[in-house]
């Protein structure tokens, strides 16, 4: 965000942004429930400059313009709030029903009340607690064999926050068992319902992670998958319908989502539950299982051609001390 400014060379966020943008490519930051990442995707010949910029702003942030950044986040928060004052983020509502009172039940953006309490001292304290060497993974994907990218990364980051080298990040509390069988309706003035069914499941480290991958593909990957074929292609009840898996380290959520008209609401749910009941009762057919496994395997074969995907995977596994192997992923899938 715009609070990350560095050194006298970059007295303001705009100067830093300009320096990155003169490199071409894309740079951004994102925050999830379990990690914050800063990313740049560009061309190899400017990698030295990109590495140096990253090292500088991570080592020497000014944490300036807190009030401006707060105002920006409030505008973003308003974008998830309707005219009735209700949050329309269905992922948040699902997490609140499954794990009430936990960190997953709080919005990543915060609330107006929590945002109002943040100042530079709070940011420094948070940085000193979490932005420490043992809680950082730096990674790069791309370039050519035999280049010196790893050496340049080492030179830039080996001394990062040396005074915090021995500090361990705080371990979060374990989540309680999910609470299911719950329904929530959010008042929202629209001509369609945004519908979400969420099933709790195990996390990304579970042996079942590959099972979840195949299951969501059986449900919604392609026109021939169960939900699009029946609810859209045969009955015309929806334009978009799908299934999605959201894996965290220890837990996950398997979602079925669709946008439905009011006059077709009951018909949609009747047909949806019929499909889910049939899958739960009789299991998938051999052909659809084979097709889903094949499509997932092809996706894994394509993964090495996506440097951003490879880099994110390598960093996340490295941060947790796990080896990264797309071949092992495929073996589990099969």
Q: Give the helix proportion (percent range).
A: 40-55%
- Which series of helices and strands comes N to C? HEEHHHHHHEHHEEHHHH
Strand order, main sheet: write it out.
Answer: 3-5-4
- Largest sheet geometry: 3 strands, antiparallel
Number of strands: 5
What quaternary form is this?
single chain
Structural class: alpha+beta
User: Whole-number radius of gyration?
Assistant: 23 Å
Number of helices: 13
User: How confident is the prediction overall: mean pLDDT?
Assistant: 89
Shape: globular
Q: Separation of termini?
A: 41 Å
Strand residue content: 5-15%
User: Which parts are unreliable, with pLDDT below 50 for 5 consecutive residues or more?
Assistant: 1-7
Short note summarizing the structure:
This protein has 334 residues and is an alpha+beta fold.
Description:
Strand 1 and strand 2 form a beta hairpin. The strands form 2 sheets. Strands 3-5-4 form a 3-stranded antiparallel beta sheet. Strands 1-2 form a two-stranded antiparallel sheet. The protein is an alpha+beta fold and about 325 residues long. The chain is globular. The protein has 13 helices and 5 strands. Helices cover about 45% and strands about 10% of the residues. The relative contact order is 0.10. Helix 2 packs parallel to helix 7 (about 150-155) and helix 11 packs antiparallel against helix 13 (about 325-334).
